[in-house]
Amino acid sequence: MGLGLTLVLFPGILLPLLGLPVPTDVWIRVGGMMMFFMGCFDVLAAMEGWTAYFRMSVPLRLAVPLFFGAFVMAKWAPLALIPMGFADLFGALWTMWALRMDAART
Question: Is 102 helix (H, G, I), strand (E, B) or coil?
Answer without folding.
Answer: helix
